Amino acid sequence: MATHATKLTLGPILFHWPAERKRDFYARIADEAPIDTVYLGEVVCSKRAPFFDSWLPEVAAKLERAGKKVVFSTLALVMSEREIEAVRAMAEDSGFLVEANDISAVRLFAGRPHVIGPFVNVYNEGTLRYLARNGATRVVLSNELPAHSLAALAEAAGNVELEVQAFGRLPLALSARCYHARSRGLHKDSCQYVCADDLGGMPLKTLDEKPFFAVNGIQTLSYTVCNLVQELGALRDMTIGYVRLWPQAVDMVAVADVFRSVLDGKTEAREGEAILSRHVDFAPFSNGYFHGREGAAYAQ
Amino acid sequence: MAEPLELVCPAGAPAALRAAVDAGADVVYVGFRDQTNARNFPGLNFSRSELRDGLAYAHDRGTRVYVAINTLPEAGNPDPWHRAVDDAAALGCDALILADIGLLDYAASHHAGLRRHLSVQASASNVESIRFYQEAFGVQRVVLPRVLTVAEIAELNAQITVETEVFAFGGLCVMAEGRCALSSYATGQSPNVQGVCSPASHVRYERRGDEMVSHLGDYTINVFADGEPAGYPTLCKGRFVAAGRASYIFEEPTSLNVIDSIPDLMAAGVKALKIEGRQRGRAYVSQVVSAFRKAVDAAARGEPAPACDLGSVTEGQRNTTGAYAKDWR
């Protein structure tokens, strides 16, 4: 029974948290969270990677000792020679499962088992089948896809595992330009790491003060927090096997507990939603993409 | 004399195609009138018979035609995209511009002899990504995403054996193309799926006292003072408030224009220049294509670009060289 239950994963930390905070975060995940798989690595900005790289082996070992599967994620927007070298190095180090977040990694990971991350576009069966032939064993689907597309992909997936983003601010866009730096009148090269000022991203509002997005360096996220706790039953019925939680600056152990409990049928989805809303007090929930609407919408 | 850069020009309608051919385009790129291409705007693009006529007009005058089929096919509904590829091939287009891995795979296996170009929507920004598309699907040209500097483009071209095409003029995505869901977050419609960004169906202008307010869906994108021209509310060119300060946080309403950098792009090993604007009219196409024809030919002779005024056709009447200059970042 347990082996067939939907698995919970924790996506890589998208924000530039201090190294100590990341270490303590993962220590608590290892000890307390009902998470099956943890994705590690800097996905957003290669300038941040050196701050935590030296801690990664210890963190990965601790998570594995706690029975978690560990996956190393690549950068999402790969441009410089240094960034390409980092992906090549991950391809050569075969100790862990790896997640490709850029097509460069899809080429470099070919022929060995790997995960296709959410920053590679997989919108249809043709792409899914090609990537499976290339060696992908799991695909994290784009957050834009509505339920009927998820169902069609699940139908065609064969042996490939599918993962859906179910909690957290949604990654919406990447750019060569750093908007955190730009908001302070700085350029990316001399950014002074101002993205560290916002543990959950910098809120971006309209001129009418309506919250819209959250800026995270070169990345733009949704202001709303995606929450598919009420759609878990539908995902299970589609045979989607993995559900991803994106780390936010909230009690992620409590969040994972709610998702696990709802998946296990121990808590009603509606009650789970109520508990989550007590933990997420900084922004409203959204689930519009799943329901074929604008991503910011929340259908209850 | 060096070989001039190939000039790849937009046409959203048969009249624009003829205007581009007459103004000296080497290539005109077009799309079908449906969601299979990333400029799926009402009243725009080509039916099958319009494309047949357009191909005849262009080919008679030595101009090639590329067909963009560069949205991502919908799960469970591949037929419109497969049909678009089959029809473009049957009608005799000179190349397909594709973004989706599954569709590239389809085109490579069903129409192996037809040139395949990688759309900017595939966002191939480095040597390994480009090699992937070349090895896997025989892609012969890559349209580079608007994230690279000229120096980075030169480095890239030194390492690859496919042609590169870069954007030279027109609307400017500030996000990595094909990896942006801002539009669907606000409206439910995106470039990847429906082939539209900040769709007109969701645009609303509202007068508030002396000000004009532009909205996209439920969101205010900009507020204009009386007399200030109220620009189209493209999401990433809006004015937003961050940390208490209102600004064009993503990008000002500007147009890309590299007409003065053509020699640098030639030196960087670029093969072709792309002019954006399939949603623009015949006048825009004539004016921009003529100016670039002269500039590209002058650069090939080693001469400076002739003076020209494209101010009236640029967004916000302002120009930028965008990501091609490092300080843009």
Structure commentary:
The complex is a heterodimer of chains A (300) and B (329). By secondary structure, chain A is of the alpha/beta class. Chain A has eleven helices and twelve strands. Chain A has one domain (2-169, 225-271): Aldolase class I (TIM Barrel). In chain A, 33% of the residues lie in helices and 21% in strands. Chain A has an eight-stranded parallel beta barrel with strand order 1-2-3-4-5-6-7-11. The radius of gyration of chain A is 18 Å and the shape is globular. The mean pLDDT of chain A is 96. Chain B starts with 5 loop residues before the first strand and ends in a 9-residue tail after the last strand. Chain B is 29% helix and 20% strand. Chain B is globular and about 60 Å long. The interface between A and B is large, with 76 and 70 residues.
SSE series of chain A: EHEHHEHEHEHEHEHEEEHEHHE
Distance between the amino and carboxyl termini of chain A: 30 Å
The string of secondary-structure elements of chain B, in order, is: EHEHEHEHEHEHEHEEEEEEHEHE
Give the integer mean of the pLDDT values of chain A: 96
What percent of residues of chain A adopt helix (DSSP H or I)? 25-40%
Broad shape of chain B: globular
Q: Helices, strands, pairings?
A:
The complex is a heterodimer of chains A (300) and B (329).
Chain A: E1 7-10, H1 19-32, E2 37-40, H2 50-53, H3 56-65, E3 69-73, H4 81-92, E4 97-100, H5 103-108, E5 114-116, H6 125-133, E6 136-140, H7 147-156, E7 161-174, H8 179-183, E8 202-205, E9 211-216, E10 219-227, H9 232-237, E11 242-245, H10 252-263, H11 269-279, E12 285-286
Parallel strand pairs in A: 1-2, 1-11, 2-3, 3-4, 4-5, 5-6, 6-7, 7-11, 10-12
Antiparallel strand pairs in A: 7-10, 8-9, 9-10
Helix pairs in contact in A: 1-3, 10-11
Chain B: E1 6-10, H1 14-22, E2 27-30, H2 48-60, E3 64-69, H3 79-91, E4 95-98, H4 101-110, E5 115-118, H5 127-137, E6 141-143, H6 150-159, E7 163-170, H7 182-187, E8 203-208, E9 211-216, E10 219-224, E11 240-242, E12 245-247, E13 255-257, H8 262-267, E14 272-275, H9 282-300, E15 319-320
Parallel strand pairs in B: 1-2, 1-14, 2-3, 3-4, 4-5, 5-6, 6-7, 7-14, 13-15
Antiparallel strand pairs in B: 7-13, 8-9, 9-10, 11-12
Helix pairs in contact in B: 1-2, 1-9, 3-4
